[in-house]
Amino acid sequence: MSGAGDDCALLEIGAERLALSIDLSVGDVHFRVSWLDYREIGYRAAAASLSDLAAVAATPVALLVSLAASPEWPEDRTAEVMEGVGEAAASVNAQVVGGDLVRGDRLIVDVAVLGRLGDRPVLRSGAVPGDGLWVTGRLGGPGEALRAWLAGETPDDAARERFARPAPRVAPGEWLRDRGAHAMIDLSDGLWPDTHHIAAASTVACSLELERIPLHASATDARAAVVSGEEYELLVALPEEFNHAAEFTGRFGLDLTRVGTVAAGSGATLLADGVAVDPPVGFRHFK
Amino acid sequence: MSGAGDDCALLEIGAERLALSIDLSVGDVHFRVSWLDYREIGYRAAAASLSDLAAVAATPVALLVSLAASPEWPEDRTAEVMEGVGEAAASVNAQVVGGDLVRGDRLIVDVAVLGRLGDRPVLRSGAVPGDGLWVTGRLGGPGEALRAWLAGETPDDAARERFARPAPRVAPGEWLRDRGAHAMIDLSDGLWPDTHHIAAASTVACSLELERIPLHASATDARAAVVSGEEYELLVALPEEFNHAAEFTGRFGLDLTRVGTVAAGSGATLLADGVAVDPPVGFRHFK
Fold first, then answer.
1. How many Cα atoms occupy the beta-carbon half-sphere of A99 within 13 Å?
2. pTM of the full predicted structure?
3. Between residues 107 and 146 of chain B, which touch chain A (CB distance below 8 Å)?
4. N or C: which end of chain B has fewer CB within 10 A?
5. Cα diameter, chain A
6. Degrees (nearest 5) of the Cα angle A46, A50, A53?
7. What is the pLDDT of residues B32-43, one digit of tens each?
């Protein structure tokens, strides 16, 4: 979901607190159809939307899927897209409850998700001066895959896998909420731009330390990794005293790395060995 | 929403019973962009999705909107589409709570809706032999507008209005539920095809009487009116003893007309002066 607000719309219905989000993927805009198989296209579209629920620590319940497919497609190709959607849903114990299938000349997958909020949602706006900024996983894989494809190369398997099959961090998001997370966002634009979203929503200053950025095996450049988009990892502001990273890794098999600090002020700063450096120029977005 | 099932997915979360649906509109597939203004495009996409809630007698609460728009569009054109969506939402006291805006070469509006079910949903599957089949409003306007456009003519204002600004029949749907409706569907494919959906879901036979079809002012041919799609009127199976049509019209300023009968058996029959006639050939769907 886009917008200056949070990753999800939050809604109270009766005694229930719900989170809703929607994510539109358009073939040859968000991905080249030739990069992925049809199952991956469905999986990835659903994972992007489920990641929005992870970012507010909501428990996914239901997905609705709109799919436009070429009239020339064989039936089973549509089924493959839907299998991928179903696989992403099943990975977080949610269900595809409905959808709309239309004919069109462009592959479109739009996924709306509904989740249940627990005790409290974690918003972008809760970061306070003194918090540490932490990130799940290792960054730069999707950006490296995109770089390779756009250069006419074949990305290595690990980078391709990170692009094609991002895991929505639902259980890690709930765990981080329970450990006192103040603010959270999923990395769809990239660590650097999404850090700005936390800073703006929380009216605080955020700094990132380049040498702390955990790099994916296929990535070598921290400055590229901080603008690698569609990572779907979580960026989380945790109280200074947080010291459960090893427990997190033991539980989820996933790194949790402190990459920066929240302070009074505004905006975001990128530091290399303690010195502010220019932000990376441009984002490697596929047009 | 498409599919052999109901117009909405029905979901229980805690003590709440919810209805969800999604409806994808793609420019130059579902409508030619030149036929409508941008506000109407947004309104119509939202109304189609809200009509699914009306068909199960759910009360609309929230809408999510995915919008893909050309990068060459001025900002205010995107705003016009969203104003139309907001207008449809406001007409049934619901709110647009979030969305996703992306750039693309094709106008796409996908609207997911969430509603609350009252005492009971009205499904397609509840019709029983002896029920009367009733339809709200007057039919044939959208079909006549489509016919005119496809013939290179300009539709009259009343037909164009029915195409551009269908009213989701939310309050009428709730009222019909409270008066004992057994089954309901909104007319998106058209009266004749949607009657088949009721017959199939309820495992009953349905007959429609051509001379009873209430025709819109711009329509002259009942056989064209029964395949006029995107009417977004309600087709409802009501107990034989139902006799509140005048009260309905007084309340909603809308016709409620008995058009047929439910019997034991299967399938749908079209009757002219009591004699079965061939169904209309083909549907006037815009390709």
1. 21
2. 0.92
3. 108, 110, 112, 114, 116
4. C
5. 58
6. 160
7. 778 999 999 999
Average pLDDT value over all residues in chain B: 92
Element spanning A18, H or E: strand A16-26
A114, B114 contact by CB (below 8 A): yes
Q: Whole-number mean pLDDT of chain A?
A: 92
B85/A contact by beta carbon, under 8 A: no
DSSP, residue by residue, B26-44: EBTTTB-GGGS-HHHHHHH
Mean pLDDT of A106-115: 94
Helix (H, G, I), strand (E, B) or coil at A47: helix
pLDDT tens digits along B194-222: 999 999 999 999 999 999 999 999 999 99
Indicate if the alpha-carbon torsion angle A172, A175, A176, A181 is positive or negative.
Answer: positive
Distance from C-alpha of A259 to C-alpha of B261, rounded to nearest angstrom: 69
- Residue B226 buriedness (CB in 10 A; 0-12 / 13-18 / 19+): buried
Cα distances (angstroms) measured from residue A74 to each of A67, A236, B30: 14, 43, 21
Contact (Cβ atoms closer than 8 angstroms) between residue A68 and residue A117: no
Distance from CA of B101 to the nearest CA of A (A): 7
Question: What H or E segment, with its residue span, contains residue B88?
Answer: helix B75-91
Q: Put residue B230 in one of left, alpha, beta given phi > 0 → left and psi -120 to 50 → alpha.
A: left
For the beta carbon of residue B76, count every other beta carbon within 10 angstroms. Answer: 9
Residues in chain A closer than 8 A to B20 (CB atoms): 62, 64, 97-98, 112, 114
Q: Which two tokens stand for residue A116?
A: 């249940």
Distances (CA, A) of A131 to A204, A259, B141: 10, 11, 61
List of chain A residues whose C-beta atoms are within 8 Å of the C-beta of residue B66: 22-24, 66, 110
If one counts every other C-beta atom within 10 angstroms of the C-beta of residue A171, the result is 16
Q: Is the pLDDT of residue A167 over 90?
A: yes
A98 touching B, CB under 8 A?
yes
B14:A14 CB<8 A:
yes
Which tokens hold the place of B152?
A: 């290179």
Residue with tokens 């997958």: A109
- pLDDT band at residue B4, thresholds of 50, 70 and 90? very low
